[in-house]
Design brief:
Number of strands: 9
Radius of gyration: 19 Å
Order of helices and strands: EEHEHEHHHHHEHEHEHEE
CATH architecture of the largest domain: 3-Layer(aba) Sandwich
Structural class: alpha/beta
Distance between the termini: 24 Å
CATH topology of the largest domain: Rossmann fold
Largest sheet: 7 strands, mixed
Shape: globular
Oligomer: single chain
Strand order of the largest sheet: 5-4-3-6-7-9-8
CATH superfamily of the largest domain: Vaccinia Virus protein VP39
Helix content: 25-40%
Number of helices: 10
Strand content: 15-25%
Length: about 300
């Protein structure tokens, strides 16, 4: 990628096609609950030759960026997140220009956090979310009852922003995806025979505290019942699916009648890397896993 200036004084990006070897890329966002550590296992469920990859709880979309499908639909109820994906996909130059003006540090972080995103142009608004996501505590996305982002500064352990080349690779992969800003129903209604759906819904586990990330309402048991109805519907439609969910009675409810396996994961307690515990994730699918992922 090369960044230059056009005759209007605006940043422009010279785009080059990604080679086959360069397709896979890490997500440019941090996200609490990301399944990056499970990607080798998750990819075994991807059926070779699927028409489209569909993910209705996108978050950082780590599996999408890893497998680099040729066609995809990404959805999330988080409007700010989906708008950011749209800007990185369609308007990357101005997003990167805005990011360059944002400096790392507690004072700058708190100042940028206080800015009302509704007052910003779309590329700057996207840059603000990327900046806050990178430098906030533990990659959380949390808002108060008024919808204001309120995650504290993460300190020195948050690392650096991704490089321009990294953003460019993510942008090119996002150009292969349709984006849906809305609840999971809105994304799943696009599914048709031959597609593959990956769902990583928020946990609504009655036996433990679950962090309510996107808004104050969290993810209800009624919504979980709707996920179960969608699994039955997708199976009838000949749509392959994979669901990842914490080991719990709720996971038992979701997996009844489908294939499943238990895999070990490591989770942070209260978000602190020094307080880790082993946990179990249940993978639920209507397709048997292969020895290797069927990624196309």
């Amino acid at each position: 990628m090369q960044v230059g200036i056009n005759k209007m004084g605006e940043s422009i990006i010279a785009r080059y096609p990604l080679s086959e070897a360069d397709q896979s890329v890490k997500p440019f966002l941090r996200w609490a609950g990301s399944k990056r550590q499970l990607i080798p296992t998750l990819s075994r469920y991807l059926i070779s030759g699927f028409s489209r990859y569909i993910e209705p709880f996108a978050g950082s979309a780590s599996l999408f960026f890893s497998i680099a499908p040729k066609r995809a639909v990404l959805g999330d109820i988080n409007q700010e997140l989906m708008s950011t994906y749209e800007q990185v996909r369609d308007n990357l130059g101005p997003v990167l220009e805005a990011l360059r003006s944002m400096r790392k540090g507690r004072g700058d972080y708190l100042r940028i956090r206080e800015i009302d995103p509704c007052t910003l142009p779309p590329p700057v608004r996207a840059a603000r979310l990327i900046y806050l996501n990178r430098y906030c505590f533990n990659g959380l996305y949390r808002t108060n009852l008024a919808g204001k982002f309120n995650v504290p500064y993460g300190g020195d352990k948050t690392g650096k922003l991704p490089t321009d080349d990294h953003f460019e690779r993510c942008s090119q992969l996002l150009q292969q995806a349709d984006l849906v800003a809305g609840g999971f129903d809105a994304t799943l209604t696009t599914a048709r025979a031959g597609d593959f759906v990956y769902m990583d819904p928020p946990y609504t586990v009655s036996s433990r505290r679950v962090f309510k990330e996107y808004d104050s309402s969290g993810f209800s048991s009624r919504q979980l019942e709707n996920v179960r109805k969608w699994l039955l519907r997708l199976d009838e439609m000949n749509v392959g699916f994979l669901v990842s969910y914490a080991e719990s009675a709720e996971a038992e409810f979701l997996r009844e009648g489908f294939l499943s396996e238990s895999v070990g994961v490591r989770r942070n307690i209260a978000g602190f890397a020094g307080s880790r515990r082993k946990a179990t994730e249940i993978l639920i699918s209507n397709r048997a896993p292969s020895a290797e992922g069927g990624v196309q």
